[in-house]
Amino acid sequence: MLPSVPAATTPEQTRRSQEERRAGTRATLLDAALECLVEVGYARTTTGLVCERAGLSRGAHLHHFGTRASLVAAALVELSKRREVEFGEQIAALPSDGGREEQALDLLWSWYTGPLFYASVDLGAAARTDSELRARLEPVERHLNQLTLIRCRRMFAAGPEDPSRDQPIQLALSTIRGLALLPVLHPGAGKAEQQWGFARGELLRILARPGPTASAD
After folding, report:
1. pLDDT by residue (tens digit) across 84-93?
2. How many helices (H) and strands (E) does the chain have?
3. pTM for this one?
C-alpha cells in the first residue's frame, strides 16, 4: 500500500496562515502591554518587559509596532474595541423609565474608578514631557472622548446623534474624572467616595432638568 501524500498547500493558505500568526502575535503583545500598564505603570512598561510577559522574543514588538509609544497607543485602541460590546450591553440593560439617570450615573462612575482609568492617567502624565507619546496618544484620546460622548448620549439623551444634553453630560464627565483622581493624590483616604455621594445628587438634579427644545422655523 502506497503512503498517502499530503495535500499541497496553496499560496492562499500559506498567506492566510502567516496573517493569522501575525495577528496572534500582535494580540499577545497588546494583551501584555495592557497588563504591564495596569500593574507597573508606563515608566516601567518597557518593550522588553512586554515581550517577556508575552513570551515572545525581544524584537517581536519592532516588527509590529516599532516603538513603545506606538505599542501603547495601539493597546488603548484595541482595549476600546474589545470593551465596546461590554459597554453597549451595560447601556442596553439600563431601565427606560424611572431610575435610569441614577443607574446611568453609577455606571459612568464605575468606568472611571477602575485600574484601567488610572493606567490612562499615568499615560497622560507621561505624555506631558514625552513628545512622541503625546503625538501617538492625541488622536487616540480624541477618538475615545467621542466614543464616550456617544455612549453618554445613549444614556442621558435621545440617542448618539442627539446633542441636546451635551452640556450636562460634559459636566458629569468632568466631575467624575476630577473625583476619580483623588485616590491618586490621597490613596486609601476614601475622599472620592465621600464626595461622590454629594456630587451624584447634584448631577442627578441637573440631568433631570428638561433639555432645550428645538425652535420653530
Report:
1. 889 999 999 9
2. 10, 0
3. 0.81
What span, in angstroms and rounded, lies between the C-alpha atoms of 154 and 180?
22
Whether 152 contacts 91, CB under 8 Å? no
Cα 198 from chain centroid (whole Å): 27
CA distance 130 to 152: 31
Q: Which three cell numbers stand for residue 158?
A: 435621545
1 to each of 5, 8, 57, 151, how far by Cα in Å?
12, 21, 45, 66
Cell 467621542 locates to 146
Please give the Cα distance from 69 to 79 (Å, whole number).
15
Concatenated DSSP letters of 13-31: HHHHHHHHHHHHHHHHHHH
Whether 79 has a pLDDT exceeding 60, the answer reads yes
Q: Where do the DSSP E strands lie in the chain?
A: none
| pLDDT confidence of residue 87 | 93
b/e 158-181 (16+ beta carbons within 10 angstroms → b) = eeeeeebbeebbeebbebbeebbe
Please report where in the chains the cell 461590554 appears, as a residue: 86
Give the pLDDT confidence of 181-201 residue by residue, as tens digits: 998 888 887 889 999 999 999
